[in-house]
Amino acid sequence: VPAAEGRVPPERLAALVEGVLHAWGMPAEHASIATAHILYADLHGIDSHGCAMLPHYDRLRVAGSLAMAPEITVVREGSTTALVDGGGGLGHVPADTAMKLAIAKSRECGVAAIAVRNSGHYGAAGAYAALAAEAGLIGVATSTSAIRAIVPTRGMEAMLGTNPIAFAAPAARNEPFLLDMATSTSSLGKLRIARQRGERIPAGWALDSEGLPDTGRTLGTSEPRLTPLGASPELGSHKGYGLAAAVEILAAVLPGVLSAPAAPGSGRRVGHFFLVLDPGRFRAAGELERDVDVLLDGLRGSEPADPALPVLVAGDPEHAARDERTRTGIPLTPGVLEELREVARTSGVPFVLDEQD
Amino acid sequence: VPAAEGRVPPERLAALVEGVLHAWGMPAEHASIATAHILYADLHGIDSHGCAMLPHYDRLRVAGSLAMAPEITVVREGSTTALVDGGGGLGHVPADTAMKLAIAKSRECGVAAIAVRNSGHYGAAGAYAALAAEAGLIGVATSTSAIRAIVPTRGMEAMLGTNPIAFAAPAARNEPFLLDMATSTSSLGKLRIARQRGERIPAGWALDSEGLPDTGRTLGTSEPRLTPLGASPELGSHKGYGLAAAVEILAAVLPGVLSAPAAPGSGRRVGHFFLVLDPGRFRAAGELERDVDVLLDGLRGSEPADPALPVLVAGDPEHAARDERTRTGIPLTPGVLEELREVARTSGVPFVLDEQD
Fold first, then answer.
1. B269-280 pLDDT, tens per residue?
2. Among A111, A68, A113, A114, CA closest to A87
3. CB contact (8 A) between residue B109 and residue A113
4. Nearest C-alpha of chain A: how many angstroms from B292?
5. Checking CA distances to B68, which of A63, A85, A178, B181 falls within 20 to 30 Å?
6. What kind and span of H or E run contains A238?
């Protein structure tokens, strides 16, 4: 099936990504795993966390702050827990390793918790939580971020990463429930797009250098200062701030990266946290999946404010994007295409996105 | 020490609460545990979840939908998991049982997850998470709510409870980090107070019967329709909605109360979920607590927008209320005092709050 105009077949984008990672010195097995997680983001419509990250990864690599063939080790392990060391590379492979270990341990023991230290950007948190749901388990995936972006309630300074939380649970007839959210109101990606286009942003997304709501005036001149989910004290921003701090405890304090020195050129050291729970220890086989269906069907069937915009459940936009992009290809902006072309050129990898079917 | 004017000594309020619960037929040991959790809310400034709930509990009891001497049983148990049945009573004792069992299991195995079914209102979720932090562990406590109050993003109907999430972690020099938040923007209690006072509420807290932002116009005439944390689609309400649904999966679907028939007069059956994690499986003794201090000190020390309002961390308001109320007594509004007097009278319990020191 030829891709629609301006769109790239997923398998061709995967070949480019895998080729670039391999050319950078990533071992073949690691490049295959990392590519699968990068493509997950591109396929599921999470455009800021997929192939568009390659130029950033390249800058870190050139700056010497990203190991391309790190040793990924389990430094501590018990029946239900483990501490994984990412070896100073990208996060996809250590995160994949940790989530699969958590899945195996939870099948054995009922529940498992794994923390990862000395890691890097791992793409979309939902990709890892989804692995648990695909295995019939409940999964949680969180991560800190190298860049401080969230300003505490009452504060002026960006102190916490956008610290995502992903939660997935399996259903019987439905796709899994799949929540994948930053603990900020908006995202660095949306601010970047607004800045590039010279557009104003909604009041509540960011603060200016005086701590006042920023609607675009200072976005180009200051470091991003995102509000926590809730946007303002009146609307509960202390809750989003509290969630971001809780993620910092699980994914930075617990694996021991909070007080680790920053990597040169890459900001803070990144940590992750994964939790997996086997519903078979609580319900008879199939009962949880059946009741998740009841919940999801009930929510989707509830009355919408606008009949043209039905009520959705977490994961619906991502699953719809995946279905559509699998059919018609992955849309890439001209800017991302040019950046990928340059990355391919400097890496000595053929730019297969230009090829015709 | 005499209590300040209009304030009640905590020990006297505890005596009244315990006396009433006992008079309702709650066994002495259960009444003591439930009283401790009810007083936790009153002491920590969570006024809507403490003794002010007694008149509501009384109405449920009189309606025959609240067992006062339920059999609380562990119906399924593994090394890291358990399913507890609350026997159709209040939630405080089954929740206390479940959290203490999770603490014991996590000490043994590293991590433990416990779900509770057939339960009722358990007061402040933070009280249970705090038990884990006091034991040197990381604790999570969630619960569904009998009343549907949160309207999904894009929706019109209240479909989910205010489904709280509590998260606690121990520190060395600091009080524990203690997040205790509803997944709604505001709370039923704040709406009730606004209605009683005839005040308008901020746009973003609730919807009117047409699904539009309600600032007070219809609060008195319609069932409450709270927005999820995030308040509007533009400010990320799909994230708060997703968190509320994730809590519904953990605390209703997992223990099997989602599709259970509603209790007569009390709304939906209530379920809880608890998770405890032993940081000693990841870090050397004392390291986690030391780094939680680094995190909390760093956040509190960051620059405030208004120098008169320093940056706080989750738990600060509750710990300050506890310190102040321990010294000066618990403030009760005239309305709550009158309701408690009536509950004491109909229960045949002396109204000790009138006594002088």
1. 899 999 999 999
2. A68
3. no
4. 7
5. B181
6. helix A237-248
